[in-house]
Design brief:
Blueprint lengths: L4 E5 L3 H12 L4 E5 L5 H10 L2 H4 L5 E4 L10 E4 L15 H18 L4 E4 L4 H12 L6 E3 L2 H16 L6 E2 L2 E2 L7 E2 L5 E2 L2 E2 H6 L5 H12 L1 H9 L6 H15 L4 E10 L5 E12 L2 E5 L6 H24 L5
Parallel strand pairs: 1-2, 1-4, 2-3, 4-5, 5-6
Antiparallel strand pairs: 7-10, 8-9, 10-11, 12-13, 13-14
Helix pairs in contact: 1-2, 1-10, 4-5, 5-11, 6-8
The protein binds 3-acetylpyridine adenine dinucleotide.
């Protein structure tokens, strides 16, 4: 049986890391696409040359021609620009919306059956626009953010409790931005919810609040340190986990920016929710009951996403 084909649209910091991870995990053959001439070709060759050393079998190709993504099973989109210190994700909207248009058209023409994972920011609005521009079914177009945000939350929690991050699970809802909603009562250490751990005296509410805030600011913390770009290792790992769930029909329960219609009282919007990812793409949106405070935070996050979607419609009439 032929190996799956994974197309990476954007061969920058995240795109290159995605290519390396996909090859090392032998998820399939990899095509790296970028408008910058030489970049995808150079990265593909460099990674291919690590194959004999690492011992993986995968064909890697770099290209500036959309025709080379033909028949891709998965497309992961990082094309666009990242933020610089002082910028918010939302400042990227105008420039990255134009990029989503060309990427959507490229996928529509050459890889209409792919499972598409968008990473480009501002995430919730860009994945919404990419689905519209590509015309692919909503369950096959999804945004990566929740796995990363939950990963950051899990990392900080494992440091606080001094336990393996494998035993820490975390739950994050809402848009990928300052309004994201880390849910403490659904986040656990070995199944024990965080509020119970506060009661047990293992941590304090103040410390927990600080961790939640650090999670919300996780992207900006890295932008501030790097100064020339944004996080790329953990974002790439997170998208690869989603791609693997699809390619191997794992039915993983992963938080991601999915098209939500009906659940959470929403009438068709991309926002971060827990989902089941399998061979059909987003197979289920898990509609959990929120308490009053959680609902208020979620509503605020949804309003922020709606504002960005309206801004997209204002810029590009074809989206209205
Ligand atoms: P970067 O290293 O700049 O790579 C972006 C690549 O896109 C560059 O190689 C560009 O040449 C290429 N590109 C630009 N325009 C086009 C186009 N029209 N078609 C094809 N390629 C194009 O950025 P990065 O890899 O660090 O980040 C990529 C995106 O991911 C940015 O928008 C970031 O803000 C975003 N990001 C999202 C998260 C989430 O959790 C959602 C995390 C980190 C970064």
């Amino acid at each position: 049986m032929a190996r799956p084909k994974i197309a990476l649209i954007g061969a920058g910091q995240i795109g290159g890391t995605l290519a390396h991870l996909a090859a090392m995990k032998e998820l399939g053959d990899v095509v790296l696409f970028d408008i910058s001439e030489g970049t995808p070709q150079g990265k593909a060759l460099d990674i291919a040359e690590s194959g004999p050393v690492e011992g993986f079998d995968a064909v890697l190709k770099g290209t500036n021609d959309y025709a080379d993504i033909a028949g891709a099973d998965v497309c992961i989109v990082t094309a666009g620009v990242p933020r610089k210190p002082g910028m918010s994700r939302d400042d990227l909207l105008g420039i990255n919306l134009k990029v989503m248009k060309s990427v959507g058209e490229g996928i529509k023409a050459h890889a209409p059956n792919a499972f598409v994972i968008c990473i480009t920011n501002p995430l919730d609005a860009m994945v919404w626009a990419l689905q519209k521009f590509s015309g692919l079914p909503a369950e096959k177009v999804v945004g990566m953010a929740g796995v990363l945000d939950a990963g950051r939350f899990r990392h900080f929690l494992s440091l606080e409790f001094g336990v393996s991050m494998r035993d820490v699970s975390a739950f994050v809802l809402g848009g990928h931005g300052d309004t994201m909603v880390p849910l403490a009562r659904y986040s656990t250490v070995a199944g024990i919810p965080l509020p119970d751990l506060v009661k047990m005296g293992w941590t304090t509410q103040d410390k927990l609040d600080a961790i939640v805030q650090r999670t919300r600011d996780g992207g900006a913390e890295i932008v501030g340190l790097l100064k020339t770009g944004s996080a790329f290792y953990a974002p790439a790992s997170s998208a690869i986990e989603m791609a693997e769930a699809y390619l191997k029909d794992q039915k993983r329960v992963l938080p991601c920016a999915a098209f939500v219609k009906g659940a959470y009282g929403l009438d068709g919007l991309y926002v971060g929710v827990p989902t089941v990812i399998g061979a059909n793409g987003i197979e289920k949106v898990i509609d959990i009951k929120l308490d009053k405070d959680e609902q208020a935070m979620f509503d605020k996050s949804v309003d922020a996403v709606k504002g960005l979607v309206e801004a997209c419609k204002g810029i590009d009439n074809s989206l209205a």
